[in-house]
Amino acid sequence: MKNSAQKNYKLIFLYLTFYGLSVGVWSEFSQLWLNSQNISIANIGLIIAGGSVLTAAIVVVVTKYTKKINEIIILKFIFLIKFIFLLGMVLGYYYHLNWLSVICYLFDSVINNLVVLITYPIITYIIKSESIYSKRKLIEYTATDIGVLISSLLIGKSIGSLNLNYNFMLILSMFFIIGATITVLFINNNDQFKVKRRTNLRKIFKDKIICVYLVYFFIGQIAYYTALGMMLLLLINYADLNASSGSLFIVFCYILGDIFGYLALKKLTPNNDYITILLKFGVRFLMYCLIVILPIKWILLLGISVSLFFSRAYENKTDGLYINRLEKSEIFEFSNIRYAIGFIGKATGIMLCGLIFEFGLRYIFGICLIFLFIQIIMGLYLVKMRKTEQNNIFYIL
């Protein structure tokens, strides 16, 4: 790897670290922050869903009508705009302007989605491999977990007359975004990012495995966010935890998941991909069934902990394999399509979660189980499709 490419590679992971910290110290409390301003849980779900749908619309327009785009320049602009929206939320809270808080929250969620969307294509312009997808995710996840841990230990405390409340976490998030913005500004926009793109969506959709994968990804997003789209609110309302203990529980599960994810990437990935799918999603399915049968506090905590433990493992097998089927010049278009579909799935899941939240755990996890079952079947079918393809290639050779 050349020096300039290596520098950019390190800077990308550095800005991901700052960004993860920013998201971590604030994201878990953002829904509680909205709820504290007398916004109902159902409406919070609709706000978050609206942000995801708006992102999907932006992505579709960009993919269809933009022939040339520079992700590095867009990324630099995005971080500056994100800081403005965070500042708008602070001002909306202090001046009791709920409409300003909601609008800035909505567009900040759009910005967060765009950062996630742009980052992986940028990395693939420097290096492309099955493991790099999981590595990028693990770095972002770890930074986010550290941010959640910091905020969990600080929330509710006081330093002199300063009350470390939700709004303080929002301000702390702004400082980390400043770090991310400065880091992004140092990324050199050189030849490695100047890739000729072909907006040939027909070619992408001719790949049957890719088409099935996109449906699988869509269903998976619905399944995940129907159950865990409002996780901290779930723990506070149904497990009798407070904001601090609830976020500590989440970050503890995530940290264990990060450790397992790293070990899975290095040593613990089964040779049989069918087993990998069943480990990642089958155990979660059984835990959710248990919650539906016995919707009590300790079963809920067990189910969430197991789900989070497996959530960050094996992404090189459940996602990376399919993303890396494409040529370097097609990654940008496919990434846009994939995330647009994923954002709509996320919006659907969170909207369902918000609408049925007050009905109880059986309804929340019962509806989730329907989508999770479909996801598992499709995941196993994708493995079969790949095995068949490999056997046909071997036969031809």
Summarize this, please?
This protein is 81% helix and 1% strand. It has helices at residues 3-35, 41-65, 71-94, 98-124, 130-154, 166-185, 201-206, 208-228, 231-238, 243-268, 273-293, 297-311, 315-323, 331-356, 361-396; strands at residues 158-159, 162-163.
3D structure, described in words:
The mean pLDDT is 83. This protein is mostly helical. Helix content is 81%, strand content 1%. The protein has a two-stranded antiparallel sheet with strand order 1-2. The chain has a single domain, classed as MFS general substrate transporter like domains (Growth Hormone, Chain: A, Up-down Bundle), CATH 1.20.1250. β1 (158-159) and β2 form a beta hairpin.
Tags for this model:
397 residues; mainly alpha; 81% helix; Growth Hormone, Chain: A; 1% strand; globular; 2 strands
Global morphology: globular
What is the tally of helical segments?
15
CA radius of gyration: 21 Å
Q: Please identify the structural class as seen in this structure.
A: mainly alpha
CATH topology: Growth Hormone, Chain: A
How would you characterize the largest beta sheet? 2 strands, antiparallel
Order of helices and strands: HHHHHEEHHHHHHHHHH
What's the CATH H-level homologous superfamily?
MFS general substrate transporter like domains
Helix content: over 70%
- Which stretches of 5+ consecutive residues score pLDDT under 50? none
| Tally of DSSP β-strands | 2
- Average pLDDT, rounded to a whole number, is 83
Question: What CATH architecture label applies?
Answer: Up-down Bundle
Terminus-to-terminus distance: 33 Å
